[in-house]
Amino acid sequence: MAEPGNEERAKEPRTVPTISDVARHAGVSPMTVSRVLSGGQHVSATMRRKVETSVRALGYRRNENARSLRPGHRSGLVGVVVTNLANPYYAEVLEGIGEILSEANRRVVFGTSHEDPEEEARLIADFVGRQTEGLIVVPAGGPSEHLRPEQRHGVPLVFASRRQDGVDVDAVIVDDVRGAERVTALLLEEGHRRIAFVGNAVSVFTGQRRYEGFERAHAAAGVPVLPELVRRGQQDIHSAETAARELLALDEPPTAIFGANNRNMVGAIKALHAASAARGTDLFARVRLASFDTFDLEELVPGDLSVVTHDARELGRTAAELLLVRLQGKRPDRPTRTIELPTSIRTRRRSEERLPGTEPAQEPAQAASP
Amino acid sequence: MAEPGNEERAKEPRTVPTISDVARHAGVSPMTVSRVLSGGQHVSATMRRKVETSVRALGYRRNENARSLRPGHRSGLVGVVVTNLANPYYAEVLEGIGEILSEANRRVVFGTSHEDPEEEARLIADFVGRQTEGLIVVPAGGPSEHLRPEQRHGVPLVFASRRQDGVDVDAVIVDDVRGAERVTALLLEEGHRRIAFVGNAVSVFTGQRRYEGFERAHAAAGVPVLPELVRRGQQDIHSAETAARELLALDEPPTAIFGANNRNMVGAIKALHAASAARGTDLFARVRLASFDTFDLEELVPGDLSVVTHDARELGRTAAELLLVRLQGKRPDRPTRTIELPTSIRTRRRSEERLPGTEPAQEPAQAASP
DNA sequence: TTGTACGCGTTATCAA
DNA sequence: TTGATAACGCGTACAA
């Protein structure tokens, strides 16, 4: 069975080649190899060829970790923490981040906090120890000591999608308050007086802000928010569906439901569908829907639906760009900024179903505020 | 504006503290600090306390890169390449991978290949240079030199979801062929003779296999596959929608559509919906649907729908577990294995709409084959 | 143009 | 129990 000295597999490296291996193989000094590798200016063509041949022969690759040890060198690593990748929204954000960082020749070390601040703290500590040049975080909320500059050794931090009180860093967020306010106002204008709110935990930045918008619209219209119609704390489709089911079972059910993020809206829709089937009535005709964030197959919802949209990928891109500016390092004392992306509202009504073609316009998202 | 020597910010480190800084601060040797940090056995309580105090005072964190430089030490990094994070399917896979690796105290360096083998090669080269201990890749297909053992310096590689010819490594894939075959057979049994196929590019492993199953079912039933109903090459919802729209515009449109992955099915559904609205007829009543992979809001599809399902997160978990086995390093010459996860088929018919509650059973997925 | 010496932060080894 | 030394892979500074 044992077949020692299998010559046919000779190329399989038992050990990773180092710069010295290459140097030996090429009959030059390690320094010459290093020079060639960094596009060296002061190397003879002969040497260069010898080195290049050996590099290929050994399949040599520089050890980035060792490189980043040298003073002045950067690791090329950026740490990214999101709360929950099962939400396609954050997958989009991550794609946007990756797009920009990839162009900037940076790699992403990635972790999911699952909305747990402690997990978030562990990830950040680890990332800092790995010499990541910067961090992009969707903060879970809660304690924030681990986000303070001392804790992260001054590694630049950018918040995406959410911010955290008491941590003054660059951030890209969404105009949650106005988006929620406008779409709620729309429902109120249509005459709805029993609007349910299904959303994130109270501790979640966006959940808080979207609720604030929801409240503001009510206040402006002089309509009270009905506490029994407010369900906050659902982070996934399943719990959102349960919450919505309870709402629909009330003696006086809501006439409209605002889903404060896409998971909550999808859950609510599932509940509506199930309840419709169970009761043999079309509840979609009786419950007006509004969603913050888009989701697949919106158009299949057989009732009136408004969606507050923004470009999640663009949000990711912008966060990465903010980070890169900090990494360039000019004006390190530049005051932090928060970029708030605008939202737009798209409404599809059942009565318009016949309308063919003409896709909703894609809009670029950009806006700055101090 | 410039306010030099801001004492209130004194704690903000201008430079990252090293083990020597801690040693100096504690009045001990760096070696003692190192010992304390690694839960050192042979340290006096006094020393330990001194060191711990200094560590906290300076906010010291070990430099993982420098650590991994030492022989025998591992980087704790695993490189993961997926083709497209915009597909929630892969986000799920990534979550599963992260779950297991996180438990094993490994971090994920992440990249998207966007189905481009060259981008994949760049990512892998970079990951190897960063001393990742292992790689988990959803291969884009195409050339595979960059996946050969020499190119990756013998770094263990595991394929997820797809495999690549000529690269003999551990893999976790789905029983694509049988899943597609069974669901196609179901449609054929129902009497369908014009079944459309909308799927991935021919070069994509799963697309290829699912098409194979599609063909096999036809062959077994003695029904010819109609080339004009086969559209292969759509990777996103938009292109899938276009392909489906063309199919529906045929003089003799298909009576059933098989979407070979969730993006293709969602696109086809959008096309059906749009065409229904445009023509004022319910095409869902005339076109039977079948999908490989689930998607949100399946139940809203107003027609008969079969879904071939498997647990994407479990697939990710399993891939990570296979990698960890290789990283343990016992029996490095152990033959590679491919784990093929079984699928199950769930069918919802319009006529059953009344059926309340009783969620479809979640099934654990496990099966091994050589 | 090429090579030598040294140091980056860490820890295994050995000596005290 | 504690500390000095050396080495991991690489690249800057300087010498040849």
Automatic annotation (TrEMBL), chains A, B:
Keyword Secreted: no
CDD domains, alphabetized: HTH_LacI, PBP1_LacI_sugar_binding-like
Entry keywords, A to Z: DNA-binding, Transcription, Transcription regulation
Region annotated Disordered, chain positions: 333-370
PROSITE patterns reported in the protein's UniProt record: HTH_LACI_1 (PS00356), HTH_LACI_2 (PS50932)
Residue intervals of the HTH lacI-type domain: 17-71
Biased composition (Low complexity): 359-370
SMART domains reported in the protein's UniProt record: HTH_LACI
SUPFAM superfamilies (alphabetical): lambda repressor-like DNA-binding domains, Periplasmic binding protein-like I
One Pfam family in the UniProt entry: Peripla_BP_1
Regions annotated as coiled coil: none
Record has DNA-binding as a keyword: yes
Name this protein carries in UniProt: LacI family transcriptional regulator
Organism: Promicromonospora iranensis
